[in-house]
Each structure stands twice: as structure tokens, then as C-alpha cells.
């Protein structure tokens, strides 16, 4: 199995369902897909545990994404991610949009954690 994984496959774009699950490159699915499945299964046993795990996952995952996009700003800025139709913006502006979105989702993760800890029993 490991010999079949190449850089071309690892860094390629997954389908839209996997992107919704925060798997942004196919290499992410090696570890993150099983984790997302386990978090989903946890809801069957405890709503509180599911919410707490989801909040923790969102916070950690998008905190990492935020740092990734901050670091992209200090490189050569040649990489052009999906611009979601903002074709008039340069790469630097797109990086800032991605970074800001990651901050927003990290904050949502923290809010889920607080909600789960304070209000779910």
C-alpha cells in the first residue's frame, strides 16, 4: 500500500465530499478520514462527546490551516489555490482569505467546545 502512494496522488485534490470533511488533499485522508469517522460514530454514544470532539477537531485542524496560510504569505506566492471566483485578487489576497476563514472555523470550534462543556450533559 505505501509503495502505491506517490507525491502526485498525495497532493492531488479529493472529491467535494472529502473537502467538506476538511480533507483538502488526498494525503490528508490517510489519517484524517478515519478520525472523522470515529468522531461521527461518537455521536451515537454521546451527543456531548460528539460535540466536544467535533469542536476540538475543528479548532486544531483549522488552527493548523491558519498557520499554513500565514506561512504561504512569506514564500514566493506562486501557488494559486481555488479562488472561489475572486479572479481579480492576487495570490497574497487569496492566502489572507483562506487564513481568515481558518480563524473563523477555529473560533467556531472553540465555541462548540465551550457549548459542549457548559450546556450539554
Topology overview:
Blueprint: H1 7-10, H2 16-20, H3 29-45, H4 47-72, H5 91-119
Helix pairs in contact: 3-4, 4-5
Please give a structural write-up.
With 121 residues, this protein is mostly helical. The chain has a domain at 46-119. Helix content is 67%, strand content 0%. It has helices spanning 7-10, 16-20, 29-45, 47-72, 91-119. Helix 3 runs antiparallel to helix 4 (47-72) and helix 4 runs antiparallel to helix 5. The longest helix is centred in the last third of the chain and has 29 residues, at 91-119. The chain is globular, with a radius of gyration of 16 Å. It starts with 6 loop residues before the first helix and ends with a helix.
Report the helical percentage: 55-70%
Mean pLDDT reading? 93
Number of strands: 0
Multimer state: single chain
What amount of the residues lies in strands? Answer: under 5%
Radius of gyration: 16 Å
Notable characteristics:
67% helix; mainly alpha; 121 residues
Question: TL;DR of this structure?
Answer:
With 121 residues, the protein is mainly α. It has 5 helices and no strands. Helix 3 packs antiparallel against helix 4 and helix 4 packs antiparallel against helix 5.
Amino acid at each position: 500500500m505505501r509503495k502505491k502512494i506517490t507525491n502526485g496522488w498525495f497532493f492531488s485534490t479529493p472529491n467535494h465530499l472529502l473537502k467538506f470533511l476538511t480533507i483538502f488533499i488526498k494525503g490528508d485522508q490517510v489519517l484524517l478520514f478515519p478520525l472523522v469517522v470515529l468522531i461521527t460514530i461518537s455521536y451515537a454514544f454521546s451527543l456531548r462527546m460528539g460535540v466536544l470532539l467535533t469542536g476540538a477537531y475543528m479548532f486544531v485542524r483549522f488552527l493548523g490551516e491558519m498557520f499554513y496560510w500565514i506561512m504561504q504569505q512569506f514564500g514566493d506566492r506562486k501557488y494559486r489555490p481555488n479562488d472561489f471566483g475572486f479572479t481579480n485578487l492576487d495570490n497574497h489576497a487569496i492566502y489572507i482569505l483562506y487564513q481568515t476563514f481558518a480563524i473563523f472555523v477555529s473560533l467556531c470550534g472553540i465555541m462548540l467546545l465551550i457549548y459542549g462543556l457548559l450546556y450539554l450533559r
